[in-house]
């Protein structure tokens, strides 16, 4: 592989105008496609195999146009102190709001607007009322006009003295992207300039990463409507694409500079950089692709599409690193060094002074046990809160207290009870019942007598007389353990009801869907871990020709992820440092957080592992002692890996400032996970373990050694062909 990539790097260097033009054309084509494509809305959200999803599908089939999974909103009214919503003046104001919603902008997307007085939506004390607005489409598919009409609906009522707040997923806007990425790019530029001391060298990774992300995200946008990718799919692709795009170009440019410093000619240096560091890029990219494509194991279409889209962006980043980066290096030449550096080299002599990476590696070699124990115990302590992990999905109750959604949530809780914000929908299929209406009544009576039920509201049978919907209001708030237990109790009693009456009971609604989603994510976590870590283990065994090095890499990754989850629990669930992080409301950790963190962090962690340890393996294969190989690896790779990690942390940390608790949690979790993995696991645990193992670290059973193909990531065969031991004919053959 190294020889093939060496030739590719030299070709790109020689044909740099053609290669650069080809990538620019791809960017233009993708941009034109994105600009001419239909506007993306949101990908249809479904959770195949769950009871909540079966109920939604049944409603779509039996009650067409019910829009059971459409967006909903509640416009909540609160009367001034000493007054009641039943007063004539307040009734008139509410009637105006209802009429305005039915006839205003976006009314074509509204399925129904329920008058609070006709629908008995007034609290017992008369101080609070609400109107329920149901839409035909999801919150992401609402037009801006419809959303603005909803927000402005209560303005006149407010002027009349009423408190008006709006809740529900209808206000769920398409996430705005850009702020976090801009912060990351700015920090990346600063870090790269400090790392390289050259604006040219710093600009190359940024430029190529932006081109790669531009092509990837534009392609996703162009295909969004056709493939039902949705407006949120590009978020993960942009985040990961920017991260790995900078990383991969960074490693190629760094190796190119090292080759130039050893006296190579620019074209040969570019070829060697792609042949050695490029091999590591290929395998690091494969680990990221495995982690992202592996999201298909969860069997949630939306996550699968996000994973495949992000994986495609990673593939583009790898191809750009192998072709466009050496082409741009051809334009840059020796300008990848700063002016002072070029003068100091004076003929290409490398600087011999030990850098920080070298000094740190020697320190670890002197005290491997102390470093290993300190790092493992430290991460273990941080991981302790993970044992108390509670998972769920955020609702309006987790919104900042200053938002209208949270205020509406609180008003409804005060007026109607905590469970009113998360009613359950019981879809009763009476097609097989002898007496359909009696079966619905039996289900209603059974549920009404259960602990945790505040109210039940049976609905009429549909036109065909085979389906009915019963609304159940729990006593507890939607995300509470009590509500989850109630859902399980109703489902457990459903089997007895079906045996007794022939009616099938399915529990659904937003609350039940959230519970099923969390359970599905829990069930998928171990299979996903086994698949991703297992395949990556085999891949790393190919790269390092070792059993213990991949095992150590996987165990270190698991340790860093558990520690990161512990930090997330401490901040977002327990409330530690909540004020510092801007967390206004603690609660369960987002249910997709563990799998999301595993997928993203695993790919980045293996990037650092491959780039750092490959250089050690290369030095060991070329004759250095195990301890000296560790020092060599850190001498050439520590500074670059550190820069890459700081850049990634900055990209992810940029999202901590978001007002959305979910985005804030993702940003914090990924940033702290990268910190633990890069600076504790890769910089401390890895060299300490390798120092203790010595030559055993590179042990591979003979039979396995013969069975595994030699991919030559460390460039041993390439060096033999290009080194002092090869004759000129061999060298020319490789360069051809």
Q: Which terms summarize this structure?
A:
736 residues; alpha+beta; Alpha-Beta Plaits; Multidrug efflux transporter AcrB transmembrane fold; four-stranded antiparallel β-sheet; 26 helices; elongated
Characterize this entry briefly.
By secondary structure, the protein is of the alpha+beta class.
Main beta sheet, described? 4 strands, antiparallel
How many structurally independent domains?
Answer: 4
The strand line-up of the biggest sheet is 2-3-1-4
Uncertain runs: 347-352, 724-731
CATH homology superfamily of the largest domain: Multidrug efflux transporter AcrB transmembrane domain
CATH class category of the largest domain: Mainly Alpha
Rounded to an integer in angstroms, the radius of gyration calculated over CA atoms is 30 Å
Helix content: 55-70%
CATH architecture of the largest domain: Up-down Bundle
Structure description:
- With 736 residues, the protein is of the alpha+beta class.
- The protein is 64% helix and 7% strand.
- The chain has 26 helices and 10 strands.
- The strands form 3 sheets. It has a 4-stranded antiparallel sheet with strand order 2-3-1-4, sandwiched between helices. The chain has a 4-stranded antiparallel sheet with strand order 7-8-6-9, with helices on both faces.
- Helix 7 packs antiparallel against helix 8 and helix 22 runs antiparallel to helix 23.
- The longest helix is centred in the C-terminal third of the chain and has 35 residues, at 510-544.
């Amino acid at each position: 592989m190294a020889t093939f990539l060496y030739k590719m790097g030299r070709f790109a260097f020689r044909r740099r105008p053609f290669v650069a033009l080809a990538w620019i054309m791809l960017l233009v084509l993708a941009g034109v496609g994105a600009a001419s494509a239909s506007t993306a809305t949101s990908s249809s959200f479904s959770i195949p195999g769950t009871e909540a999803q079966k109920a939604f599908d049944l409603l779509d089939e039996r009650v067409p146009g019910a829009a059971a999974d459409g967006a909903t909103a509640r416009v909540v009214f609160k009367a001034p102190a000493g007054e009641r919503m039943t007063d004539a003046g307040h009734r008139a104001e509410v009637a105006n709001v209802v009429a305005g919603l039915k006839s205003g902008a976006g009314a074509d997307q509204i399925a129904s607007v329920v008058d609070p007085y006709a629908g008995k939506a007034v609290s017992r004390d008369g101080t609070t009322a609400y109107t329920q607005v149901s839409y035909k489409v999801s919150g992401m598919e609402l037009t801006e006009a419809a959303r603005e009409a909803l927000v402005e609906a209560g303005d006149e009522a407010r002027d009349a003295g009423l408190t008006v707040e709006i809740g529900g997923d209808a206000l769920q806007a398409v996430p705005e992207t850009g702020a976090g990425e801009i912060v990351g790019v700015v920090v990346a530029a600063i870090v790269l300039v400090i790392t390289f001391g050259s604006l040219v060298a710093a600009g190359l990774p940024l430029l190529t990463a932006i081109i790669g992300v531009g092509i990837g995200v534009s392609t996703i946008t162009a295909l969004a409507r056709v493939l039902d990718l949705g407006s949120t799919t590009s978020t993960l692709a942009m985040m990961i694409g920017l991260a790995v795009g900078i990383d991969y170009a960074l490693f190629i440019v760094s190796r190119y500079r090292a080759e130039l410093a050893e006296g190579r000619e620019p074209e040969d240096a570019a070829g060697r950089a792609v042949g050695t560091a490029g091999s590591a890029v290929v395998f690091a990219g494969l680990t990221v692709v495995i982690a992202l494509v592996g999201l298909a194991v969860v069997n949630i279409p939306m996550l699968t599409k996000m994973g495949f889209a992000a994986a495609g962006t990673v593939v583009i980043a790898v191809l750009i690193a192998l072709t466009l980066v050496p082409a741009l290096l051809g334009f840059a030449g020796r300008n990848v060094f700063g002016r002072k550096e070029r003068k100091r080299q004076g003929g290409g002599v490398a600087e011999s002074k030990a850098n920080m990476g070298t000094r740190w590696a020697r320190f670890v070699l002197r005290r491997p046990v102390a470093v290993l124990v300190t790092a493992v115990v430290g991460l273990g302590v941080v991981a302790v809160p993970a044992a108390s992990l509670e998972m769920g999905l955020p609702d309006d109750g987790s919104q900042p207290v200053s938002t209208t959604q949270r205020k509406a949530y609180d008003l409804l809780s005060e007026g109607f009870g905590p469970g009113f914000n998360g009613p359950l929908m019981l879809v009763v299929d009476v097609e097989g019942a002898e007496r359909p209406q009696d079966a619905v009544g039996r289900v209603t009576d059974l549920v009404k007598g259960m602990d945790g039920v505040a109210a039940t509201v049976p609905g009429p049978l549909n036109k065909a007389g085979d389906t009915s919907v019963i609304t159940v209001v729990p006593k507890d708030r939607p995300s509470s353990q009590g509500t989850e237990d109630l859902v399980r109790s109703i489902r457990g009693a459903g089997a007895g009801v079906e045996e007794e009456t022939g009616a099938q009971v399915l529990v659904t609604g937003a609350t039940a869907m959230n519970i099923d989603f969390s359970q599905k994510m829990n069930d998928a976590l171990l299979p996903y871990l086994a698949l991703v870590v297992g395949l990556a283990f085999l891949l790393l065994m190919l790269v390092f020709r070792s059993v213990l090095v991949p095992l150590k890499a996987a165990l270190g990754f698991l340790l860093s992820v558990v520690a990161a989850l512990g930090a997330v629990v401490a901040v977002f669930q327990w409330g530690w440092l909540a004020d510092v992080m801007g967390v206004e409301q603690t609660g369960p950790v987002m249910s997709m957080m563990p799998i999301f963190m595993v997928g993203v962090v695993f790919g980045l962690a293996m990037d650092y592992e491959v780039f750092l340890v490959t250089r050690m393996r290369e030095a060991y294969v070329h004759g250095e002692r195990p301890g000296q190989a560790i020092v060599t690896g850190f001498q050439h790779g520590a500074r670059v890996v550190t820069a890459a990690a700081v850049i990634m942390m900055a990209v992810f940390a940029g999202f901590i400032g978001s007002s959305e608790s979910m985005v804030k949690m993702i940003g914090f979790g990924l940033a702290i996970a990268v910190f633990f993995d890069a600076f504790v696991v890769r910089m401390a645990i890895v060299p300490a373990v390798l120092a203790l193992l010595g030559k055993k670290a590179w042990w591979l059973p003979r039979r396995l050694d013969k069975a595994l193909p030699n991919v030559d990531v460390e460039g041993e065969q390439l060096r033999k062909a290009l080194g002092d031991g090869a004759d000129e004919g061999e060298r020319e053959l490789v360069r051809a």
